[in-house]
Design goal:
With 127 residues, the chain is an alpha+beta fold. It has helices at residues 48-65, 86-96, and strands spanning 3-6, 21-24, 27-33, 73-80, 103-108, 118-125.
């Protein structure tokens, strides 16, 4: 099985030694997205809601560059600096990811890059 990297200007450029996504067979592994504006590479908003919307926009852009959609997600991993934002996460996620929902884990972490409130990575299945 070969692997192919995915890159798009519609999502933030990688800020480290990683690819925006990697396609391996029928599976797409999207690297963790934080709420950066792709054009300015600046953090979007100060509140959780603004940041979460931007993260889902970034995930959508990378999924599209891999010829997929967020509804193709089979697994999301969500990193939050405050689990108190969990209910808001569920509301916002439902706007971007339709039922049936993918498997998901949500964990609270001490800190995230650029002091953002949320990061999400995704695995898509594209048969």
């Amino acid at each position: 099985m070969s692997k192919k990297t995915v890159s798009t200007d519609a999502a933030p450029a990688a800020i480290g030694a990683y690819s925006q996504a990697v396609i391996a067979g029928e599976t797409v592994y999207i690297s963790g997205q934080i709420p950066l504006d792709p054009a300015s590479m600046e953090v979007v908003g100060d509140d959780f809601s603004q940041q979460a919307h931007q993260v889902f926009k970034n995930l959508t852009a990378v999924a599209g560059a891999a010829n997929g959609r967020l509804q193709d997600a089979v697994k999301l991993t969500v990193y939050l600096t405050d689990l108190g934002d969990f209910a808001e996460l569920n509301k916002i996620m439902a706007e971007y990811v339709p039922m049936p929902y993918p498997a998901r884990a949500a964990v609270q972490v001490a800190a995230l890059p650029k002091d953002v409130k949320i990061e999400i990575d995704a695995v898509l299945y594209l048969p």
